[in-house]
Amino acid sequence: MSRTLLVTGGAGFIGSAWVLSRLAAGDRIINLDLLTYSGNPENLAEAAGNPAHVFVKGDIGDEGLVKALLETHRPDAVVNFAAETHVDRSILDPDRFVRTNVLGTSVLLRTVRDWWLTLPEERRAAFRFLHISTDEVYGSLGPSDAPFTESTPLRPNSPYAASKAAADHFVRAWHETYGLPVLITRCSNNYGPRQFPEKLIPLMILSALEGKPLPVYGTGGNIRDWLHVEDHCEALALVLERGQPGGTWNIGGGSGRTNMEAVGAVCSLLDELRPRADGRSYLEQIRHVEDRAGHDFRYATDFSRITRELGWRPRRRFEEGLAETVRWYLGHPQWVRRVVTGEYRAWLELNYAGRADAAP
Fold it and tell me: Which of 26, 94, 149, 153, CA to CA, is 20 to 30 A from 212?
């Protein structure tokens, strides 16, 4: 059955993948995005001319705009991807993350709740507010610690993670206090096409192709669980369709890798698919740099609840998904050229140029 969904942050990496997947499934999308540096209209090129896709440039913290969209389009659900997401940027400018991730989410919740109360009883019962969060809210694991579960206490260590944990608490509070039918998901590290290249995998791909150093924090031993963005979108569809209001579901890839393993895999794929002119390996471009402040050592996500309750599990092995991702970046040079703008290069200079080399 076709639905109308108000999607916030739908021009970003994960949000745009969700929008395209739901349009393909026959849903109508009202897409609200402020188009900050990582929100890219080109991510939505496949939706151009589709009457089922309505794009609106705006902020989730703009109560009047959100209210007008709700009253005009009367969505069956709100899906909230809108967030500042990069840990390094949060360390340099934490207030920006508070404004968007905490205050913005609070305004969005309040505006949605006020409108939701005006709905007929049947529509009110069927409505959902799906909030996309991150496993980083749980904090960091040691080498032998059990993976995060949905009952793991929230112990965020970065300003980004703290802002997302605060947003999660607000979403839960709106359910417990006001009865708003909310759903929360917490995903592991996403990768795939159209990811802004401040994140590890696209940063390594594009830096390697430009002949630049590949900066790896510290020893590169930090461990992340990698989840392909399309697997993530499939999980979100199930949560939205069948998840019980008030619930939280972890969404993981089951693909824990050290950062060095992930970077090495990227280099090996590029050696095969786009060899260097001098015949040497891209591995030679790796440079260990001064570590990120408060760098979480390990994330690992127990996603058995969503498997047990909703029948989801990731379909793509990391090696397979990574090969598809590298091929996508190699096959879309125009997208890449337009993304690596002056702002992106200024960020690389700000974040990496002053970092001293670090012994592996």
Answer: 94
* Mean pLDDT value of segment 99-120: 97
pLDDT at 356 over 90: no
- 178 has catalytic annotation: no
Residues 235-279: tens digit of each pLDDT: 999 999 999 999 999 999 999 999 999 999 999 999 999 999 999
Convert the pLDDT of each residue in 15-70 to its tens digit: 999 999 999 999 999 999 999 888 889 999 999 999 999 999 999 999 999 999 99
Cβ atoms 290, 356 nearer than 8 A: yes
From 135, 230, 231, 302, active-site residue: 135
| Per-residue model confidence (pLDDT) at position 351 | 82
Query: Residue 283 and residue 265: Cα distance in Å, rounded?
Result: 9
Place of tokens 């793991």: 152
Concerning whether 136 is annotated as a catalytic residue, the answer is yes
Catalytic residue among 27, 59, 76, 136: 136
Burial (0-12, 13-18, 19+ Cβ within 10 Å), 354: exposed
Q: Which of 138, 160, 299, 329 is catalytic?
A: 160
Other CB atoms within 10 Å distance of the CB of residue 210:
10
Pairing of strands 28-33, 4-8: parallel
Q: Map the chain to HEC letters.
A: CCCEEEEECCCCHHHHHHHHHHHHCCCEEEEEECCCCCCCHHHHHHHCCCCCEEEEECCCCCHHHHHHHHHHHCCCEEEECCCCCCHHHHHHCHHHHHHHHHHHHHHHHHHHHHHHCCCCHHHHHHCEEEEEEEHHHHCCCCCCCCCECCCCCCCCCCHHHHHHHHHHHHHHHHHHHHCCCEEEEEECEEECCCCCCCCHHHHHHHHHHCCCCEEEECCCCCEEEEEEHHHHHHHHHHHHHHCCCCCEEEECCCCEEEHHHHHHHHHHHHHHHCCCCCCCCHHHHEEEECCCCCCCCECCECCHHHHHHHCCCCCCCHHHHHHHHHHHHHHCHHHHHHHCCHHHHHHHHHHHCCCCECCC
